[in-house]
Write a structure and sequence with these properties.
heterotrimer; A alpha+beta (about 575); B mainly alpha (about 110); C alpha/beta (about 100); A: about 575 residues; alpha+beta; five-stranded parallel β-sheet; five-stranded antiparallel β-sheet; 20 strands; about 40% helix; C: about 100 residues; alpha/beta; Transcription Regulator spoIIAA; 6 strands; about 30% helix; about 30% strand
């Protein structure tokens, strides 16, 4: 048996040398124990009683403590409690040395902070095993502590970063005129980090835009999209652009900058207090509700579009639903946070409950608050925990909305170039390579009064330009476009002729001057082509069927007048705009 | 002369001797003098009929004697500890006498085995 | 949450999602369509046992669509329960996927 013990010694793993405190009031016992432990390769400190044990612990900070339970002058239990306190956050395993057998005494040892017992007579093998086990536990504990501290540091850093980011967001993605008297909203201060965004802006013409967005994801990635969206929204709204233009621009931006799979479910409302109507676009958020004061009925406006940032401009659809709103009628929008709000049993609040709360509310003005309260009751969480985003816009009289104009009283219409004209001539090299329409449109958009009509103006320019280029300069015949095959051949011919072009040009003559409460835009597009006998064409009336000739009649509906001049190689279009449109 | 094996676990004692090496002599001397004091103290507390003190001293002796492989001595100390715990001192005198004898035997064996 | 995929002899890859289709499925879903021996001729996403779909799942479907050729992709989403269908409807994903 002796040989066996020796064999274990030499074949054992190298033991980490620990610092071990041994407290036993019995001299011979203490002598035996300290010899055994020293032989294991550890550094040993000894104490005769509890007080001495505490003192040595303070001085030496041993890794493990072996304490006799019954000692004079502060017994083992009290010493253990004190040592545990001194150790604080650190794990110092305490092993009680005891011949006590009864459960009560052993329980007392554990209660005092002991982790294990070692009974007399001391067994070397058992002692070795326990020391090893507790040394391992100590190392594990230290690792966990270090990791915890690292995580804590990391977390603090993240929180700080978020706070800084939040300040930037608040400056850019601000809620605009959300505090207007006809709007109620629920938006937690950290909502942007849940991907929720609410924007509201008065329009220069007096109306109002409201936007609610819900980006996919959480945290910083969800919030980052809010910045470009806000900049575009407020920048363009303030300049008088239309809902369609703003959404198109936002979609284009998000499609470009967001990774595939990240998008923004949204709804945008264009409210006109003058016309008592609203245009609503819904892409990816739950049904927008319309409440009718007179009938106390609720109507749903369903999401008809893909969320923002999913498809390219050419597939992006800006169709809106136009609704009439009487005074007191209201439009309610929310992100899916409300629908998905869960109670402790993981049941969602759900759409049915939303409808129920709203239907059961007598007083329309209380609907919003009742719904918020109902959701809070359901989740059992207080207001400070909410990440639900909700907006209610009520139709009111124009006079209640106050002045949409700037604080200094200047009308936005007063800005921009009002009275000017220009000529822009495009020669063959430019005609081959350059599309002038975005540039010219941009120039015209510098006139604030024209911004609400950007779509129409682009259509006008586009039709006139393509006619001038294709029929005038390139001398293509539109009859070819009458069939599907012909269409393809027409464009093939167009490409070829354009490549071979060496003479000819297209000229734009544009004039704008103000009138009372509006302005007049005159566009003349001229080409160097042969023209055509427009008098007879006008008598024949323009063909409206087939693939060709659709353009001019359409433009006719948009403008005050459309006329051909000269040989038929000049087209003059007069477009009026007024402030109250 | 009684058989040492009746008083001490010879095998365990041998292990102990190997562990203690040159400290073995110190250990034996410490044990013997320490235990002598304890035996005398047992006498005193019994006369005073102090059950609590009896329990404590006997407990201590029980432990230390087990560590030097004196199993019989340890058992006798255990009996006294139990009597002190249960506060029944009847027959304690006899046990103490037996303990004294046992202690002498153990001391002799240990001393001669150095 | 578990993801199963099978390649049919006709060249279609069927990906089946069991349980909640949310962010935790991210890597497995990707592996299902990326780690194939040959480019499939079409994709079928089987939602028969899908209990729930969130916006990150919608994002994953968009990633699949992008991987499968964007506008030229052929992806069918089948066997949707009412809850799943509702989420796809609100997002108007039938404009991008064939939903049965």
């Amino acid at each position: 048996m002796d040989n066996q013990v020796q064999a274990v010694e030499t074949q054992g793993e190298p033991i980490e040398s620990l610092r071990i405190l041994i407290a036993d009031d019995n001299d011979s016992d203490r002598l035996i124990l300290q010899t055994i432990v020293r032989k294991e390769g550890h550094v040993v400190y000894t104490a005769k009683d509890g007080q001495e044990a505490i003192d040595i612990f303070k001085e030496q900070s041993p890794d493990i403590v072996l304490l006799d339970a019954l000692m004079p002058n502060v017994d083992g239990f009290e010493a253990a409690r004190t040592i545990k306190q001194l150790a604080g956050d650190n794990l110092v395993p305490i092993i009680f040395l005891t011949s006590l057998r009864d459960a009560t005494s052993l329980a007392d040892c554990l209660a005092a902070g002991g982790l294990d017992f070692l009974s007399k007579p001391y067994n070397r093998i058992i002692l070795q095993a326990k020391i090893k086990a507790f040394a391992s536990m100590r190392r594990l504990h230290e690792t966990v502590q270090a990791q915890r501290d690292e995580i804590s540091l990391h977390h603090d850093r993240l929180v700080h970063e978020q706070e800084v980011a939040k300040q930037v967001f608040d400056n850019i993605a601000h809620p605009g005129c959300i505090d207007a008297p006809n709007i109620k909203y629920l938006l937690s201060p950290m909502a942007v980090f849940n991907g929720d965004l609410v924007l509201a802006s008065r329009k220069p013409s007096g109306g109002m835009f409201v936007f609610l967005g819900d980006f996919t994801g959480h945290g910083l990635p969800a919030a980052i999209g809010a910045m470009p969206v806000s900049e575009i929204f407020y920048g363009m709204a303030q300049k008088g652009f239309s809902l369609q233009d703003i959404l198109r621009e936002i979609n284009k931006k998000l499609k470009r900058i967001l990774p595939v799979g990240v998008f923004c479910c949204a709804s945008m409302v264009d409210v006109s207090f003058r016309k008592h109507s609203a245009e609503v676009w819904v892409g990816g958020i739950p049904d927008v509700l319309v409440y009718r004061k007179q009938t106390r009925q609720l109507e749903n406006l369903k999401s008809r579009h893909l969320p923002l940032g999913v498809v390219d401009s050419d597939r992006f659809n800006t169709d809106t639903t136009l609704i009439q709103l009487e005074k007191g009628d209201r439009v309610m929008l929310w992100s899916d946070g409300i629908i998905e709000a869960c109670n402790p049993q993981q049941e969602m609040f759900g759409e049915e409950r939303v409808m129920e709360v709203l239907r059961n509310t007598e007083d329309a003005d209380a609907m919003f608050d009742n719904l918020v309260a109902a959701v809070e009751r359901h989740t059992g969480r207080g207001e400070q925990d909410d990440d639900y985003t909700m907006v209610e816009v009520t139709m009111v009289g124009e006079e209640e909305m106050g002045n949409a104009l700037g604080a200094d009283g200047k009308s936005y219409m007063a800005g921009g170039p009002k009275d000017w004209s220009m000529t822009y001539e495009l020669r063959p090299l430019t005609l081959k390579e350059f599309n002038p329409l975005p540039l010219i449109t941009h120039l015209l958009m510098e006139v604030p009064g024209l911004r609400p009509h950007s779509g129409k103006i682009y259509t006008i320019l586009s039709e006139l330009y393509s006619n001038a280029l294709e029929h005038g300069v390139l001398n293509l015949h539109s009859d070819l476009k009458a069939s599907a095959d012909g269409f393809a051949r027409y464009y093939a011919e167009r490409t070829q002729k354009l490549n071979e072009l060496y003479e000819g040009c297209v000229r734009f003559h544009i004039d704008h001057h103000p009138v009372k409460d509006g302005g007049v835009l005159t566009i003349v597009v001229e080409d160097t082509g042969p023209g055509f006998d427009f008098k007879s064409k006008e008598e024949n009336r323009h063909k409206t069927e087939g693939y060709s000739g659709r353009g001019i009649p359409l433009i006719n509906t948009m403008c005050r007048s459309v006329r051909y001049l000269g040989k038929g190689n000049q087209v003059e279009v007069i477009f009026d705009w007024h402030v109250d449109v | 002369m009684s058989n040492p094996a009746d008083h001490l676990d010879i095998g365990a004692l041998q292990d102990l001797k190997e562990i203690m090496e040159n400290e073995f002599e110190t250990l034996v001397n410490t044990f013997i003098s320490d235990s002598q004091n304890k035996v005398d103290e047992l006498d005193a507390v019994l006369q005073q009929q102090d059950c609590d003190a009896l329990r404590k001293v006997a407990h201590s002796l029980k432990g230390s004697s087990s560590n030097v492989c004196a199993f019989r001595l340890s058992e006798l100390a255990r009996q006294l500890e139990m009597m002190g715990k249960e506060e029944t001192l009847e027959g304690a005198d006899q046990v103490l006498s037996a303990l004294r004898v046992e202690f002498r035997a153990v001391s002799d064996i240990l001393s001669t085995n150095l | 949450m578990a993801i199963w995929s099978t390649e049919a002899s006709s060249g279609e890859l069927t990906i089946k999602i069991q349980g909640r289709f949310d962010f935790s499925a991210h890597q497995e879903f990707r592996d299902a369509y990326e780690k194939v021996s040959e480019d499939p001729k079409g994709y079928i996403v089987d939602m028969k046992e899908t209990t729930y779909l969130d916006s990150s799942a919608l994002g994953m479907l968009l990633l699949l669509r992008d991987h499968a050729g964007g506008d030229n992709s052929s992806i069918e989403i089948v066997n949707c329960n009412p809850d799943v269908k509702k989420i796809l409807t609100i997002s108007n994903f039938e404009q991008l996927f064939t939903i049965r």
